[in-house]
């Protein structure tokens, strides 16, 4: 492995916190290798947690979904933005206060579970609006929320993910719906609860006092940035939303500690790399040439990625990358980059 430290990445951590969509499963099917990876962590006695921005399921529902896929999970291992938003409102509002819910039934259930009253209309006098992803959210819901916020209700968003992964590519996420209200109201939400805010990861990290926590995610703008804000190491897996071009263009607040194609990187030293790598990692080198970056040498595509990250992150704008040899062309193709 190109990273310093333990031979296996996972040996350096007492707990692994997983994002779900794009890491453990895609919509309703486990990603290849995910069931085995989580099972192996459990067999080794390592703490496991799940942190998701998806507010359309309660923790118990997520645990049931995972267990049904072959990933044994307990509700107390699942941290959702819906539950976190409900707890925040419980601490801010008097018991029984009306809260206008824009989202799925799971979000309504979380609001009711903390002793608040879910409502549907601005005429119900909500003290707050809580907005989370729900596939049935429509114009009427967004209109009621707009009226309520304009009347003085606090506006809480469970997350601002622009997209959701799917088998047909990225689809509109809660962030796209938050953008509708942002446009109508001319302002941002008062509070965003989910990633990249650090609360979910910080809560998980406190459970293993004295031990290190590794965050595993597929999105630079939520999982990786959230881990950095929480002061935790992170592993980007290339099974979901963020890809290599996005990684090369990432700003300092969205750069992971490690990169792997999938969860095999937790256990296989050859399947993970620390980024950025040294300028000659694994037999590769990158030079500036004719306004671009030229990759030469030979080795594994992941080692090539570590070298490319080092070069790209040292510039203000990422120049085009091209291959200086047949081996380099094959590595760039494996990374999803044009040669």
UniProtKB/TrEMBL annotation:
Q: State one molecular function term (GO).
A: hydrolase activity
Top-rank lineage group of the source organism: Bacteria
Give the Pfam families listed for this entry. GNAT_like, Hydrolase_6, Hydrolase_like
**Which part of the chain is the GCN5-related N-acetyltransferase-like domain?**
282-337
Q: Which SUPFAM superfamilies match?
A: HAD-like (SSF56784)
Q: Which InterPro entries match?
A: GNAT-like, HAD-like_sf, HAD-SF_hydro_IA, HAD-SF_hydro_IIA, HAD_sf
UniProtKB keywords: Hydrolase
Which residue stretches, if any, does this entry annotate as coiled coil? Answer: none
Q: Which PANTHER family match?
A: 4-NITROPHENYLPHOSPHATASE-RELATED, D-GLYCEROL 3-PHOSPHATE PHOSPHATASE
* NCBIfam families named in the record: HAD-SF-IA-v1 (TIGR01549), HAD-SF-IIA (TIGR01460)
What is the designated name of this protein? Answer: HAD-IIA family hydrolase
């Amino acid at each position: 492995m190109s990273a310093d430290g333990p031979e296996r990445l996972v040996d350096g951590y007492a707990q692994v916190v997983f994002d779900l969509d794009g890491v453990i499963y895609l919509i309703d099917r486990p990603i290849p290798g995910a069931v085995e990876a989580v099972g192996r962590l459990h067999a080794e006695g390592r703490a496991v947690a799940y942190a998701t921005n998806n507010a359309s399921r309660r923790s118990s529902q997520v645990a049931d979904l995972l267990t049904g896929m072959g990933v044994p999970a307990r509700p107390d291992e699942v941290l959702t933005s819906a539950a976190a938003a409900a707890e925040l409102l419980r601490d801010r509002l008097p018991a029984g206060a009306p809260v206008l819910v824009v989202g799925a039934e799971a979000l309504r259930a979380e609001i009711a579970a903390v002793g608040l009253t879910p409502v549907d209309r601005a005429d119900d006098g909500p003290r707050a609006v809580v907005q989370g992803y729900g596939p049935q959210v429509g114009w009427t819901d967004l209109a009621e929320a707009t009226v309520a916020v304009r009347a003085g209700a606090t506006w809480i968003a469970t997350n601002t993910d622009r997209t959701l992964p799917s088998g047909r590519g990225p689809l509109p996420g809660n962030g796209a719906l938050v953008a509708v209200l942002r446009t109508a109201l001319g302002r941002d939400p008062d509070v965003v609860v989910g990633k990249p805010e650090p609360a979910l990861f910080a809560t998980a990290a406190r459970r293993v006092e004295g031990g290190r926590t590794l965050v595993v995610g597929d999105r630079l703008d939520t999982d990786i940035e959230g881990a950095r804000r929480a002061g935790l190491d992170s592993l980007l897996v290339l099974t979901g939303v963020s890809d290599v071009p996005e990684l090369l263009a990432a700003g300092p607040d969205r750069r992971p500690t490690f990169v792997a194609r999938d969860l095999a990187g937790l256990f296989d030293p050859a399947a993970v790399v620390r980024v950025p790598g040294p300028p000659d990692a694994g037999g590769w080198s990158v030079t500036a040439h004719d306004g671009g970056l030229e990759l030469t040498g030979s080795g594994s595509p992941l080692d090539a990625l570590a070298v490319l990250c080092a070069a790209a992150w040292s510039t203000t704008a990422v120049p085009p990358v091209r291959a200086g040899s047949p081996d380099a062309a094959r590595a760039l193709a494996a990374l999803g980059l044009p040669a």
